[in-house]
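ok so i was messing around last nite and threw this chain in just to see what happens. nothing serious, just curious
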Amino acid sequence: MNNVPPMSAPACIPYLEPEIERELLRAYIDSASDGIFVVCDEMKFHVANPLLATWLGFDEAELTAHGERLPITDLFGVAETEAEFREHFSAALHGQPARFEAEIRPPRGEPRWVEISMNRVGLEAGELVIGILRDITDRRVLQTALRHHASHDDLTGLANRREFQQRLRTLVDALPAKRGPHALVYVDLDQFKVVNDTCGHLAGDELLRQLGLRLKRLVNPRDVIARLGGDEFGLLLHDCGIEEAMRLAESLCDAVSHYRFAWDGRGFEITASVGVCAIDGDTVSVEDVLSAADAACYVAKDQGRNRVQLYFGGETCKSKRQEMQWVTRLQKALEENRFQMWQQRILDLKGGIDPHSRHVEMLLRLIDEEGTIVAPGVFFPAAERYGLMPMIDRWVIQHLLLDNPCSPLLADTARRTEMRYAINLSGASLNDDRFLLFLEDALRRTRMATPALCFEITETVAVANFGRVREVMQNLRQFGCRFALDDFGSGMSSFSYLKNLPVDSLKIDGALVRNIVDDTADLAMVEAITRVGSVLGLKIVAEFVETDATLQRLREIGVDYAQGYAIHRPEPMQAN
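result:
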C-alpha cells in the first residue's frame, strides 16, 4: 500500500454572531459610493446611508427617527419624479424589481440626476423595499449636451435644419386632426456675401450670431426658429393665421434692415428677403411647405429684396418653384449620367470648303426621366441660380476630354488638320478655383491638341468679372486654348475693354443678327461690331442665322463665320 498522507481538514469558518453580521452590513452600507435606503410600505425611511443623507441635506437620524420617519417622496422636490417613484414603488412592493432614471431637487440638497433601483425584502414583521440611488448627473449632462448639439446650430445656438424639419414634419403629420392654421417663414440675408468677402469668415460668423439673437427676441417661445444653413433662417409659427404671420415676417424684415453691423471699423447695412407660406389642410408634405416658402423668398429677391412675399400659388411663385425643382432633377441627372453632347457646325464665310477642317460648337442637352430631350435654356437659369453650373461644366469637360479616349472629338482631332471646338464656360465656373484646377489638369492629361479648343464666355460675364476672366484666359492660353466672347452686343456699353481682354473672336448676339435683312438699326450694329473686331484682329461669328438672305447679308458686310439653322441644325455628337 502507498503511504498517502491523510487529507487536511478544511479551514473552519468561524460562526458570526447576528450582531457582527449587522455591523458588517452596516459598514458596507455606510461606505457605499451610492445612496442606499430602506423604506416601509408607506415609503418612510428605516435606513438611509450617510451619502444619501448628505445628498438630501439631512442627518440620517432626522430621516429615520422613530415615530417621526420622513417619507422619501417628500424629499424629491420634483412632482414628476414623485409620481414616477410611486408607480415603480408599487411594482417593487409586489415583487417586480424596478429601475428608472429621475431628477431630484431636495429642499436642502443639490439637484442631481439619479438612477433608482428597488427590490422587495420580505420580513416576518412586514414588507420593506431596499433601494439604491446612483448619481448619473455627469452622464445626463453629457447626454443633454449631445442632444443639444445634434439639434442645434453651434454658431447661433438656434435649432438646426434637421431639428426644424423634424418639428415641421410633426406639425404636418398632425394636420388631419389639427388643421391649423400655422405658417412657415423663410428668411434669406441679402448682403451676407459682401461681409464674408470683405472682412472674412470670422466677421460673417459674428454677423450670423448677432442676427440670430436679434431674430430670436422677436419670436414666441412656443414657436421654432432655426438657422437652416449659410445665411438662411426658418421660423415655424404654431396656431398662427397668415395675416399674423405676415405681420411677424414684416417685423423680422424691419429688424434686419434697421441693424447695422460693425467690424474692424467698417459698417454694413444688412437686409433680408422673406418668404411666407401657410400650413393648413391643403398642405401636402414637408417638402411642399419648404419649397413654397423658398420660392416665395426668391420672388422677394427678384422683386428688389428687403421685402416679404407670401406664397399665393400665382404664376410668379409657381414658376419660381418649378425652377427650384430643377435643382433635384439636375443633381439626379448628373448622378445618372443623363446629359448628352450635341454639336452645331459653324460655317467659314471667307474660306473654301476643306474636307479636313471643321468648326463646331459643342451643345449640351438633358435627357429627362421620360427620355425627352431638354434644351439648356430650360434648366440653365436654375443651375446658375443654385450654383450647379460648375458641376455641369465639369461633366462636359470630363465627357469630352477624359472619360472616353475614343470620343468623337478626340477622334476628329486625330483625323483632321484644322479643327475648332467651341465649349461654353459659365461665370460660376470661372469663379470656382476647384473647377479651374480640374480644367487645367484635364488639359494636361488629354491627348487632344488644345489649340483646337475655343472656350466661349458671355460678354456680360466677362464685363462683370473683368479682372478674374482676364486672369483665367491668360492662364489657359498657356495650353494653347482660344477664347470667344459669346452673345456680344447684348450688353454693349463700350468696346474699350476688348483691347485688354485676350480673346480671339466675337460671337454677335443672335437677337441682333436675326433681323438684319429688315431692321436697319440691327444691321448697323452688326456692321459696327464687325469693323471694330476686324481692326482689333478678331474673328467675327454671327449666331441665329436662320435664312439664306441673312447669310448673304453677313457675307456682304464681311462677317467671318455664321452659325444657325440655315447652316446646320444641332444634332447628337456621334463617332465618325
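not much to say yet. The CA atoms of residues 450 and 478 lie 10 Å apart.
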